[in-house]
Design a protein that fits this description.
The chain has 285 residues and is α/β, with parallel strands linked by helices. The protein contains 13 helices and 13 strands. The protein has a single domain, classed as Divalent-metal-dependent TIM barrel enzymes (TIM Barrel). A hairpin with a 2-residue loop joins strand 6 and strand 7.
């Protein structure tokens, strides 16, 4: 959906649980742009077993075309730094296969976050110190290089999303990664709310400006969701325009870009889509 020159979309798995239902409901609700998490949306296929299947890819693309759906992000959110080496290898192989699907679907980007390491005594807690270490940054960089190389050969763009808990966690580290890879086929997916934590949320305007100053024209997709945060409850995500995100300031920075990124309303249930669009029409100047 186009509002005031911005292309808005949703994640496919926020629309429906099955691929067929997603296509129908997207049309009924004027959704034209998707973040398409292939393994979540086409959930009856084990893509780790199937790998890349050209015939399957054609069938999926035909269905997307039939419903006039474009793929802003082909979601392949893996853990490319997994400590279990067999798991790490399998995750990287999935991303490699999905680059082929991204080409077939004419996806704007194929996207991933950059993974985490967990604490030895608590598998549900991220080990921030190790995840943010130089050693892990170099591991991720080395694992990313061949994926970007394949993407270059197919004319596909890899989108990397900084997240506070991951190795690529701040605008400065994202800029470092862009410089280290140095490829037109690797750009940024920006979700400001994912970089927010209890220590930096009061400085979010500076973070927004830093991201746009350092790599604004490299931002291909915006994930847009809001957040609330407090010492008592930590960070909670919310629908765009209903929380503490400095959303008007962010849209000013987006609007100043020569090439406007596509915007995916992240984590937003379909039932809240139209009211969120109306809210954003009043926010975007």
């Amino acid at each position: 959906m186009d509002i005031k020159g911005f292309q808005l979309g949703l994640r496919g798995h926020d629309i429906a649980d099955t691929f067929s239902d997603m296509c129908v409901l997207a049309n009924e609700n004027d959704v034209t742009n998707l973040q398409f998490a292939l393994a979540k949306t086409v959930s009856d296929i084990n893509f780790d077993e199937v790998g890349y299947d050209a015939d399957l890819s054609k069938k999926i693309k035909a269905k997307l075309d039939e419903h006039k759906l474009s793929v802003s992000v082909l979601g392949c959110y893996i853990n490319p730094i997994a400590e279990n080496l067999e798991m790490q290898k399998a995750q990287l192989k999935r991303f490699e296969n999905f680059i082929d699907y991204a080409k077939d679907f004419e996806a704007t980007v194929i996207g991933t976050e950059t993974g985490v390491l967990v604490c030895a005594d608590n598998p549900h807690k991220v080990d921030i110190e190790r995840t943010h270490s130089e050693e892990v940054y170099q591991l991720f960089l080395n694992n990313l290089r061949p994926l970007v190389k394949k993407a270059e050969g197919l004319g596909v763009t890899v989108g990397i999303e900084p997240v506070w808990e991951c190795p690529i966690c701040t605008p400065k580290v994202m800029k470092r990664l862009l410089d280290d890879i140095n490829s037109d086929n690797m750009l940024a997916i920006l979700d400001v709310s994912n970089m927010i934590n209890l220590d930096n949320y009061k400085n979010q305007r500076e973070m927004i400006d830093e991201a746009f100053d350092l790599f604004g024209e490299k931002i291909r997709v915006i994930h847009l969701k809001d957040f609330t945060i407090s010492e008592e409850n930590g960070k909670k995500f919310a629908a765009a325009g209903t929380g503490d995100l400095e959303i008007e300031h962010m849209f000013k920075r987006i609007d100043a870009l020569k090439n406007k990124p596509e915007i995916i309303l992240d984590g937003l249930p379909l039932a809240n889509y139209k009211e969120t669009v109306e809210r954003l029409k009043n926010i975007i100047k």
